[in-house]
Task: inverse folding
């Protein structure tokens, strides 16, 4: 700020503050201390009281000054020696504001009309400098600062790249986490649904497990005579084994591919099911062949393992095959005939019942009931695929499921009540209802259900 030129009092002049005579050369009044440097040289006029940053008024209003107009009510300046202090600055928001119409102005209105009074006016060619200098956003290049509201476009990722559902820009690594923000991605297998013309399946993680270790595969093929064949495979990963989710997925895919290859070539459905279970076992066994380095870092890992149950409806036959404790049920449409469990569990409880050591209620109440005695995996004692074929004498549906469902409908009567009566015409809806039944019951395990309507009604009934 430039310095103001000091004026001295002239001979015969009086103090504008107290009207006491002044002597030549006085810089301040000897009576009241008034700063005479603010007076123009050689003028006896009193300075006009001004507002909004013009020269300041005297420190106090002299007794002889007329009272201010009652309608103005300006605040009186405090008694202070301000000769060496800059003119105080007042913002419009420091005092209550009243509009000319008599109403109160809003804060926004006051700000819109505010004029800075704490800096001298600058010439139009030299705009005033800003109070703050905004820093450029990180990574922005000069000279133009980045707009913080702008979202930088991420380069187009390669085809098939999965992007994070949280930040929508980071890529998802093979472990299911975003490489940018670290957010865990929803797993595709947490809830799966699929429907074909004559078969449907639903799989859900349940309410207690952190991942879904079940898997399924459904498909349709044509026999050599052109008649249709419908396939459903359901697998349940053994939780106590390593990578059970991979085991169930590998087994379901291998069994399904084997059946789609064998059935169109005319292989008998029951033999095709037996061979499919062996193919599934080979696929699960292959998962145990890990590099030596991986085994060194995780010496306590065991071989991946899973159970399997499958069903084929082809040429008037109903074929089932299984290893483990996943099950298949026959439920007639009209419910006039009995609901039948088509499989026998490879479990401790089933062995106790078969040996006559316990009845079914006692065996399944034991804590060892669900310990399985048969499974697919490299450490299985002896693989014994079970297969059976039936010729139902009426229309119905086949329910193929893991123990995540039948634990909540263990008796055949309970399963019959849980299956909707229109399952034959709405298989996907029926599978959804059964999964919901398990979730409503507690959802303690993964749950997977496949529904195959049996529409062919040949003569006779029984087991082949």
Result:
């Amino acid at each position: 700020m430039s310095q103001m030129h000091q004026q001295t009092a002239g001979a015969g002049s009086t103090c504008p503050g107290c009207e006491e005579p002044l002597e030549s050369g006085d810089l301040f009044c000897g009576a009241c201390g008034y700063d005479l440097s603010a007076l123009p040289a050689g003028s006896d006029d009193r300075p006009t009281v001004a507002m909004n940053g013009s020269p300041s008024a005297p420190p106090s209003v002299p007794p002889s000054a007329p009272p201010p107009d009652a309608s103005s009510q300006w605040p009186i300046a405090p008694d202070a020696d301000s000769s060496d202090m800059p003119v105080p600055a007042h913002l419009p928001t420091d005092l209550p504001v009243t509009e000319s119409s008599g109403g109160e102005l809003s804060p926004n209105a006051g700000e819109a009309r505010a004029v800075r009074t704490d800096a001298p006016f600058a010439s139009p060619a030299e705009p005033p400098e800003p109070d703050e200098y905004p820093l450029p956003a990180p990574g922005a290049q000069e000279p133009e600062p980045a707009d913080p509201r702008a979202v930088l476009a991420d380069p187009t990722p390669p085809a098939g790249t999965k992007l994070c559902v949280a930040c929508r820009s980071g890529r998802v690594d093979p472990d299911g986490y975003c490489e940018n923000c670290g957010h865990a991605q929803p797993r595709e297998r947490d809830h799966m649904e699929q429907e074909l013309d004559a078969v449907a399946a639903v799989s859900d993680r349940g309410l207690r497990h952190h991942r879904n270790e079940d898997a399924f595969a459904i498909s349709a093929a044509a026999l050599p005579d052109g008649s249709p064949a419908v396939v459903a495979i359901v697998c349940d990963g053994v939780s106590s084994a390593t990578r059970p989710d991979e085991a169930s997925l590998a087994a379901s895919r291998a069994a399904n591919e084997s059946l789609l290859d064998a059935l169109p070539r005319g292989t008998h459905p029951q033999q095709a099911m037996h061979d499919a279970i062996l193919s599934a076992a080979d696929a699960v066994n292959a998962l145990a062949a890990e590099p030596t380095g991986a085994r060194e870092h995780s010496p306590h890992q065991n071989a991946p393992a899973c159970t399997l149950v499958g069903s084929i409806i082809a040429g008037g036959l109903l074929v089932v095959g299984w290893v483990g404790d996943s099950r298949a049920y026959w439920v007639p449409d009209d419910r006039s005939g009995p609901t039948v469990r088509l499989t026998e569990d490879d479990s401790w409880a089933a062995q106790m019942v078969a040996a006559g050591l316990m009845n079914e209620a006692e065996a399944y109440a034991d804590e060892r009931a669900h310990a399985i005695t048969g499974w697919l995996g490299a450490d299985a004692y002896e693989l014994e695929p079970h297969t059976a074929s039936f010729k139902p004498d009426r229309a119905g549906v086949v329910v193929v499921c893991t123990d995540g469902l039948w634990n909540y409908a263990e008796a055949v009567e309970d399963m019959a009540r849980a299956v909707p009566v229109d399952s034959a015409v709405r298989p996907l809806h029926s599978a959804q209802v059964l999964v919901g039944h398990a979730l409503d019951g507690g959802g303690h395990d993964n749950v997977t259900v496949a529904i195959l309507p049996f529409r062919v009604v040949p003569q006779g009934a029984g087991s082949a």
Remarks:
- The first strand starts at residue 191 and ends at 195.
